Give the backbone structure.
Amino acid sequence: MSKKYILVVDDDPDLVETVAMMLESKGCEVGQAYDGIEGEESIKARRPDLVILDIMMPRKDGYVLCSELKENEETRDIPVILLTAVGDAVPSTRYSHADGMATEADEYIPKPIDTEGLWEVVSSLL
């Protein structure tokens, strides 16, 4: 079996690095992007086997990118895991639970993340 390519998209470089190191230790190849536009460009450049996507990001948020991926026939079957601190931030941001329910993400993981729990979800979706 060839290495699975996973794209991690988050505006927190420390989180991206932590998740990337964990995934690489499990034998995955990892791409990194730091906002929704970079994530979109990375997906166009190389189709990932799975996307780990933050919600609250500059330029294009994770809800929008996830919806675009799931509406596009060429990318709709790519599993998407949304990372979210939105539950705690709903009262103070433009993000809402309804936005999350409107996406077709395959899984939601709350922040702060548990890397082993994240790996269990990633491996189940691959």
